[in-house]
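TICKET #2291
ISSUE: user wants both folds in one file
ATTACHMENT 1:
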Amino acid sequence: MSDYTPQELMVAVASREIRDHDLVFVGMRLPILAYAVARNNHAPNARGLFEVGLMRDRPAERYLGTMGDPPNVLGALWATRMSNVMALMAQGLVDLGFIGGAEVDRFGNVNTSYVGSPAKPEVKLPGSGGGADIAILSRRWVTLMSHERRRLVDRVSFVTSPGYGDGTPGWRKKKRSSCSSVASIRSGEIRSSGTQTRYFSSADSVSRSSPPFAS
C-alpha cells in the first residue's frame, strides 16, 4: 500500500501544472489544494482567480465551504464582480484553468449538463458554471476528475465545455492535432491536459504519475 491517497496524488500532479507567475482560474475542492501546494513549493508568484470576483496571491487561511466565504475575501488582492474576472479570460490573460465534470471523452470535451438521452436524461447535472469559459478562453486547462469507467467515455452525452469537438483537425481553429491526452494515470484518478493533444487508447501507453514527495 502507498502512503498517500488517490486524491492526494491528484492534488500533487495538478499542482505541477501550475507555473510560477501563472494566473490560475482555481475554483474549489481539489484545484484549490493544488494551488496551495504549488504556491508553497515551486510557484510562489502564482495568483489564483475565483469566478465570484476574487484574485488572491495566497490560499485562504481557513476552511472554505464556498469560494465566496469570508476567509477567501479577507486578504484578497482584488475583490470585484464576476464579469471583471471573466473578462480577464476573454482578454487571454488567464494562463491555466481547472475543470471538473461527470464525463470527459477522448477529444477533451467535458460534460456537466446531463447523462443519457436529452429527452429523458438518466442524470441531470448542474451545468457549465465557468467551465465552458475556461475551456474556450484560458491558455491551458486541466480536466481533473476521478478515473472511473463511467466518466471516461468515447463521446460525452453533451458537450458542456468543448475540447476538440468531433476530433476534426482544426476544430478549434488552431494548428493542433485532433485529440486530448491522458498525461498521467493511476488506479483511481486521471489528469487530462487540454493543451496536450495525443490520445492514448490504452493505459499501458500512459506514463505513471510520480508520487507526492516532501519539499
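ATTACHMENT 2:
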Amino acid sequence: MRGCGGLELGQEYRAGWSYSQGVQPVKSPNELYAHAIALEREAAERYAEFARRMDDLGNAAAAEVFTSLARLEEEHLRTLLERTQEVAVPEFRDEQYAWLDAGAPETTARELVFRLLTARQALEIALRAESRAQTFFEKVMLTADDPALRALAREMAAEEGEHIALVEQLLQRTPQPGLDSQVIFER
C-alpha cells in the first residue's frame, strides 16, 4: 500500500524531520488531531507573518500569495477545530512546531532573518515546513496499528502534499534575487 509521498507501509520513512523529536509515537486520532492543529496554527501564523513582511518590502504580489496561503491554513485549522469540538485533544508546546525558531519574536536573530528575507526564501522555508509536516503524517500512517488512525494520517499527509505542490508551483514562478546590500545595512 503506497503512502501519499510514495512510501509503502513498512518502508523506512525519511530522516531529518523535526516534529518527531521528543514526541512519543501517535497512538490515537485525538493525538494526531492535536499535532495537526499545532502544525496548521504555526503555518497560518508564519504565512501571515511572511505576508506582512512582503507588504513592508512593497512586494504586493508576494504579500497576496502569502495572505492566500495563510487563509488556506486558517481554513484547515478551523476545520480541525470544528472536528474536535467535542473531543479531548491533548495540548503540545507550540515551539515544537516552529518554522524559524523557538525564541521570542523580538529576538535579534529573528529580526535579521526578516530583514534579509525574500519572497523566494520565504517560500523555501514554507516548502521545508510543509514537507516536514507531510513526513510526520506519513510516519504516523506507516507506524500506526489503528486503521482509523492510519486513514486519518493518510488524509492529512495528502493535504500537506497539496500544500507542497502549491508552494513548489509558486517557487517555480519566483525568481532568485541578488543580494541587496542596502537592505542589509538599513538602519
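RESOLUTION: both attachments delivered.
EXTRA DETAIL ON ATTACHMENT 2: The radius of gyration is 17 Å.
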